[in-house]
Amino acid sequence: MKKHPALKYFRFDRPGNPHLWCPGCGIPQIWYYTIKAIEELKLDIDKILWVGGSGCTGRMCTYWIGDYFHTLHGRPLGFATGVKLANPELTVICHMGDGEVAGIGGNHLIQTARRNVDLTAIVVNNFNYGMTGGQFSPTTPRGAFTMTSQLGHIEYPFDLCKLAATCGATYVARWTTFHSRALINSIKKGIQKKGLSFIEVISQCPTQYGRRNKIGNGMQMMKWFKRSSIRKEKAEKTPKEELKDKFIVGEFVDIEKAEFGASLRGLIKKRRKESVKN
Amino acid sequence: MSRIEVRLTGFGGQGVVLSGIILARAAMYDKKEMVQTQSYGPEARGGACRSEVVISEEAILYPLVEEADILVAMSQEALDKHIDSIKKGGTLIIDSDTISRVPEKIGIKVNKVPATSIASEKLGKGIVANIVMLGALTNLADIVSKEAMEKAVKESVPQGTEAINLKALEEGYLCAQK
Amino acid sequence: MNKRILSGTHLFQGDEACVEGAIAAGCNLFAGYPITPATEISERLSWRLFDVGGIFVQGADELDSLTIVIGAACAGWKSMTATSGNGICLMQECIGYAAITETPCIIVDVQRAGPGTGAATKTMQGDVYQVRYGSNADYSIIALAPESPQEMFDLTVEAFNLSETYRVPTFILADEIVGHMREKVVIPEKVKIIQRKRAKFPPQEFLPFKVESDTDVPPMPAFGEGYRMPVSGLTHTETGSPSTDYEVQKRMVSRLWNKVEKNVEKITKIESAYLEDAQVIVLAYGSVARSAKSAVLEARRQGLKIGYLRLITIWPFPDKVIENIAKRKPKAIIFPEMNMGKMVREVKRVAGERTKVISFPKPGVELHKPKEIYNLIRRVTN
User: Which CATH class is domain B4-177?
Assistant: First the structure.
């Protein structure tokens, strides 16, 4: 049997199941797309750190063969900032869930984007908290059913890309698990960008969200993504009412601006030049 | 010299804390033991503010003032609040421009220094009134040397303001002599 | 001037002395959120750290701050944060994470009066339990309680050394009085510095959480050094793999607990005087110890046989020290604390029935006056 090309990057250290994701889940797909981006950029494994928090997405880092930093729920960006400041040579990639980044870790996203830290933040948005059994998250659409919105969800969802862009991220993109090539290219671009790259990936959670909202299995959910996605360029020319329930995909921000660590190191140089008063 | 307790009081923004730091620094230059503390409210300007300095030849344990040997008051409110903390036989130094009424208290020496008018009229900078008060304190209380005080002022005030502050110290010193 | 050690005599606030201690010890990163009465630490570090090639970050809150500190530590740097009681409340999740990942980090807690917002500019010793037991489940930490700006310098250096040695979050448990008071601080030419243990084996033979026979502390490679470190807040095996197995949990938690608790005698620092003939002993820590010592000296002048003991190490609690005093069966141990009587429970636990332990609590804002402690000594001895 042919071995999957990503397996040489996979940490086989768990007894029983090689990984904990459900059949049809989008997370292992995104895991592989991240590997593809790393491989295509020909990066040194020992100079890449994967960072995650708690939850299904948070576990992605724990299967990475190199250094990994499996941190607190919602707070990977804080920990990643610390690492990046101490060792700017590392490529730091954070995978986070929608609940993490938009809920409990909202402030970490806001501040990391505002500071423009040189990190790649990949947010897997599957519209619910999967690991805890499918509760609603800050990105769950209105009217959707989850274990804590069994009467139909009444809150408004976040637009994560708008949030990241407003806060100052230098690269912002959204794709779905259906858009594999575009997503890999975005991850590559994000890694190379000197500043905060924010990539939202709409992903399927067939076990919880798909089942409770009668969307179907993993494949059927991906077909839903394909059907409901519209490119940013096309969306701009489409009447607003037609964009309801659509996933607008594409690149939203791609700018250059001073990165946090570099700016801080500038202060060291500045201080060296000055006569120092104690 | 046994333990001497100095309490400097006023409202926030008058430089009361800085005065305490300068006095403590002078005591350090005189090779004495000293502790400086401060107490203030949440306000950055206005509100009651006090700074305390304990000076001794021996190691200082309890860092705060219990009974002041010397009370320096730069506002009426501060004086009214702290006059009872002066030890019997202790010294009170007030800014007579900002304080009109000295409550009755038997057995203390009262010294009036027109610090605000000296600072604003003679020196043209009202903000250095606290240093004028320190000059008076240096002369009246004899707890730190004048040389140490001058050095401490130079080391503690913002760069570029050394000259006017030293002048304020001198004016206060001379004023107290009269 | 880019000196790490500001040798010489200075008039420093406790908070400023703490900064110089950190820099002398090799601290390269600080992240902290402004909070009275610890803010002066941030203010001085915001320029001082850049002088020595380090980095200062103002966190967006206490969680942001401690995550950055832990991140930098895992990348090989010495790092620190500073806060007060309310900030510690917010940091608890990260403290537990630092404990399970065995990440050295320094947390300075300049305690203020609480609970809640309390009286921000006033003193208290209210956090002694929350720094020890605040995060979920069982782990160990080290906490040192300075009584002066000089000790803010000395003990901050010591805290870095202990944190690196035992790979535990280490606290400077100061209080507003010590943090804000100015006193003479003498900084030596050189300070003793301990670096964390590095891996002896090449990456292929290295097990991230395997300990050598003589210690409970594994070596700690940094990210990016080729060791492919699995750092996780999950219960983990020696290889770093997550596990929910009882034996794995038992081994890991026992080690997290024992690596400090078993070394309590090595870690413990105390100051004592007149214990030999003491009929009553006054026990204290932090700023209160200054009043306690003053009262003891006065009692001695009056011919009373009073002993003095100061805990510099608060956690791990020095059972042996209390045990040794209790064995002498003094008439009483008097324990003034600026809280409703917290550490006194530890003392009572160790002393048992052998001596009377008298708590002298004050609920914060006001420091014990020497006279108050002296009067209590009088009442107890009569």
Answer: alpha beta
